[in-house]
Design a protein that fits this description.
The structure holds two protein chains of two kinds. By secondary structure, chain A is of the alpha/beta class. In chain A, about 25% of the residues lie in helices and about 15% in strands. In chain B, α2 crosses α3. The chains are: A alpha/beta, B alpha/beta. The complex binds zinc ion. The site of zinc ion (ZN) has 8 residues of chain A, from β12 and α7.
Chain lengths: ~325, ~210
């Protein structure tokens, strides 16, 4: 896999937030989004159209997720925002401070302390609870879009539950690669009905959204869609009998905290090819180290510097 | 200008809405959302009850103020239609247009749910846009009366017991049929004095043998 570098863009404009309503959005917009959320919950995996608003940040920043969070957020909530598993990237920090300023809510990096978790590209390693809500930032909500560009056609496919094209695509993967090569935004079928894009999370996270105790809300700002998965809903990753769905496996545990069975990022330590694999979920890794778990690289000076600043590259 | 400027008579059409609209409507929405996400589990609405003209109830009115606006045609049952105060209250606080065509309603509000029309008369949504369906709101419910039903489906871990009263005679059979229309069909929100429950179209209903 190629590594992707997180892009640093201009920070959202937050200079005039004091003139805005609680959580920025006006009440009419919140009502419209709230109605869409209720429909999304009632029809799990179906993409509900909504009149997405301009937000004081560019689309790539997760305006769909931000609008969903703004519509559900209350004074009692504690918000956590992650980007690729980290609370400290520019995107996560900006969104967190946006809600601190416009809603005055408490924020946290601890998964267990959050009532709402807004995320881009990861699901926390710690199991979420029934009293938590996870909000996903979605760039392209339509799982069939790259197979069929016309909205009228994909809508008809969903209406008829005609998902043959998607299976053909996955099967071509197998023919070409000997396995299903899709590793992120891996399509799922929700409640035996709708095929859904779980957002660009690694397929490693797909099993977490099956029968998850927390309510899942998905917001796509540019594409103007909201969808949802209620708690304890069956979510099946598409596969074939002779090629069952499998998650990525990592050869070694996290170099910092020793955790196995978690999603790891590759981190380059020096220009001599030194590298290590560490938890993508920085809060999970920190909590494990605080509890005394140490990985085999934990004492390495180059690795120690990582625990004070966030790694910035994907791997695997 | 607020409704309070017009009148002190709180049971009239110009009775006040939420004290703190942003906080109260968010709190009410979360109760509705949690109810929809957990079919059959009641959610408490903890904000101060509204003082509303009969036959509206405080919690049904709170739900109306939370969800209705200019964009949502509403269908009201005959008891509500006969009350000019209740009509005026909803019009003043929500601006929602009233329709007599149940099949065109985004929401249906019923204060006499024993006389609920057949669920098939409301908007069911289309195969392409199943979200264009009616959400019914039944006021004055008692969650410790009525026949027991067992619920399964999204939002429910194994099985969830539920009962509510009053509803129409054929209501539970109609709700079972409603589920077979999934992804089309209506969603139903139930309001007691201080609690909200919901049954989305995705819920499979088993009526206990009596
Ligand atoms: Zn770790």
């Amino acid at each position: 896999m190629t590594s992707s570098v997180r892009t640093v863009e201009a920070a959202p404009d937050q200079s005039t937030e004091s003139q805005y309503n609680f959580a920025y959005l006006d009440e009419q917009t919140k009502r419209m989004i709230r109605r869409a959320i209720l429909k999304g919950i009632a029809i799990p995996g179906y993409q509900v159209p909504f009149a997405s608003r301009e937000m004081p940040m560019p689309y790539g920043w997760g305006t769909g997720g931000v609008q969903v969070t703004a519509a559900i957020l209350g004074q009692e909530d504690t918000l956590k925002v992650i980007d690729q598993g980290s609370d400290d990237t520019t995107n996560a920090v900006s969104i967190r401070s946006f809600f601190e300023k416009t809603a005055g809510v408490k924020t946290t990096t601890a998964t267990a302390d959050a009532s709402i978790i807004q995320t881009r590209h990861r699901i926390p390693e710690a199991s979420l609870r029934e009293d938590q809500i996870i909000v996903f930032q979605v760039p392209i909500p339509e799982p069939l879009r790259f197979l069929e560009p016309r909205e009228t056609e994909t809508r008809t496919m969903h209406a008829l539950k005609e998902y043959g094209l998607m299976h053909v695509k996955l099967y071509e993967d197998i023919a070409r690669n000997g396995r299903i090569a899709t590793t992120y935004a891996y399509p799922v079928e929700v409640n035996d009905r709708y095929v859904m894009d779980p957002s660009p999370t690694p397929k490693f996270d797909n099993p977490k959204i099956d029968e998850m105790a927390a309510l899942q809300l998905y917001g796509a700002g540019r594409e103007k869609r909201i969808y949802a998965i209620p708690p304890f809903t069956k979510v099946k990753s598409l596969d074939f009998d002779d090629h069952p769905f499998e998650v990525q496996k990592f050869e070694r545990p996290c170099g910092l905290c020793g955790a196995a069975n978690v999603y790891l990022d590759e981190v380059i330590l020096d220009d001599k090819g030194g590298r290590m694999f560490v938890c993508s979920d920085t809060d999970y890794c920190e909590e494990r180290r605080e509890a005394g778990h140490l990985g085999d690289m934990a004492a390495d000076p180059a690795a120690v510097s990582l625990t004070t600043s966030t790694a910035g590259q994907d791997a695997s | 200008m607020t409704a309070q400027n017009f009148t002190q008579n709180s049971s009239s059409a110009l009775a006040p809405g939420f004290d703190t609209p942003v906080v109260d409507s968010q709190s009410c929405f979360r109760a509705i959302m949690n109810a929809m996400a957990r079919p059959g589990q009641t959610q408490r609405f903890t904000r101060a009850p509204l003082d509303v003209p009969a036959p509206l109830t405080p919690l049904a009115a709170a739900i109306a103020l939370t969800l209705f606006d200019y964009d949502t045609p509403i269908w009201l049952d005959p008891d509500l239609m006969e009350s000019s105060d209740a009509l005026g209250y909803l019009r003043f606080h929500t601006g929602a247009p009233v329709t007599s065509d149940a099949a065109k309603a985004t929401f249906a509000l019923l204060t006499s749910p024993r006389h609920l029309p057949d669920l098939s008369t409301f908007a069911q949504g289309s195969a392409e846009y199943p979200d264009t369906s009616t959400t019914l709101i039944l006021a004055g419910q008692n969650f410790s009366a009525g026949p027991s039903v067992s619920l399964t489906g999204p939002g429910i871990r194994s099985a969830q017991g539920f009962r509510t009263d009053p509803v129409s005679g054929g209501f539970w059979q109609q709700m079972q049929f409603n589920n077979t229309s999934f992804p089309c069909g209506v969603d139903v929100v139930f309001a007691s004095d201080d609690e909200i429950a919901a049954l989305p179209r995705s819920t499979k209903i088993t009526i206990a043998e009596s």
